[in-house]
Amino acid sequence: MNGVSKITVTDDVALLTFHNIPNDWKILSQIFTGLADAQVNLDMISQTAPQGHQIDLSFTLRAGQLVEVLGLINRFKELHAGLFPMVSNGNCKIQLYGEEMRELYGVAARAISAVAGVGAELTMISTGEVEIALLVPQADCAEAVHALEEAFQVSADA
């Protein structure tokens, strides 16, 4: 029982982060609705806890939609001048899945240690009850996947 039964890899993933934006659900709703209306599939959505009335918001998307999304964000900036995204392109998402994670502690620690052990940069982490998603630069992807395969004795899906 190691907690992981499947590893998948998604290449060509972009990360957008907005720092210090208002913790205003009307603004966030406009952003998410605009992206949904443009048929942009967001993944790994992460929000920090409010710091005063500000939050940081990050999400990933297919790199092929990045130009379109930046165009949409320019329209959002007309309504909300403080929206300036930081963009990180050229990433891969490594997803670890396992029903055992629901009841097993230490899976995330082992995954993070495996990636750290090969010196791969870990850009973002998101989790669910039975999954852990790790975003790493494409240049570190193969080495990080290999380390995770060894740590969990599971071959990644090609």
From TrEMBL:
Residues 94-152 form the Aspartokinase ACT domain. Its EC number is 2.7.2.4. GO terms for biological process: homoserine biosynthetic process; lysine biosynthetic process via diaminopimelate. GO terms for cellular component: cytosol. SUPFAM superfamilies: ACT-like. GO terms for molecular function: aspartate kinase activity; ATP binding. It catalyses: L-aspartate + ATP = 4-phospho-L-aspartate + ADP. It comes from the Bacteria. Belongs to the aspartokinase family. This is aspartate kinase. It comes from Candidatus Anaerotruncus excrementipullorum. The lineage of its organism: Bacteria, Bacillati, Bacillota, Clostridia, Eubacteriales.
